[in-house]
Amino acid sequence: MIIKLVLALTNRFRMVLNKLKFIDSRVSTGANIKICGFCTLSVIKNNVRVGKCFFANSGLIISNNKYSPITIGDDVMLGYGVKVLGGNHDYSHTTCHMRHISLPSSEVRPIVIGDGVWIGTDSIILSGANIGEGAIIGAGSVVTSKIPPYCIAVGVPAVPVKMRFSSTDKLEEILKNTKSKLNSNDVMKEYESFFDK
């Protein structure tokens, strides 16, 4: 009984510490964020925004540089060990090996995670990722580019494998219930255009 109480208090203390890490001057956050266990932040001041009702399991890592701003929407869930890693390397130098180049690439490649996204355990989100509203990213996936809204994407690199909702009625229902700015026609067009490439 005492051990369970000590463990519960320890976990609660870790969640408070993680919340304080997020609330400091480096990260802009919405209300009601919850980060379980340990997390690591290595971010540029005022270059990471996290929306309200954010949840992350243990092992979260967020890291970026000034060329990779990170925006995480409202109602986002991140599984255990998710890594959100911004930063680019300029590999075109001919004067020396890359190890000796201290400046990152100056190409701006933001990371955007839309509202209502769920990212599975041990997934990696890299510069240039743009995950649409309501998308689900399968465990162990690596996201490097655009993922349409309300789809399920898996793999390395992550690609959409199916829509979350098989009927337009269900899609319209979730869009209405979440007060989304999207409409079902736009979601379907974006999803179809992804596969027409």
From TrEMBL:
Superkingdom classification of source: Bacteria
Membrane spanning residue stretches: none
GO MF, one annotated term: galactoside O-acetyltransferase activity
Keywords in alphabetical order: Acyltransferase, Repeat, Transferase
EC number of this enzyme: 2.3.1.18
Gene3D superfamilies hit by this protein: Hexapeptide repeat proteins
Entry protein name: Galactoside O-acetyltransferase
Upper taxonomic lineage: Bacteria, Pseudomonadati, Pseudomonadota, Gammaproteobacteria, Vibrionales
Gene: lacA
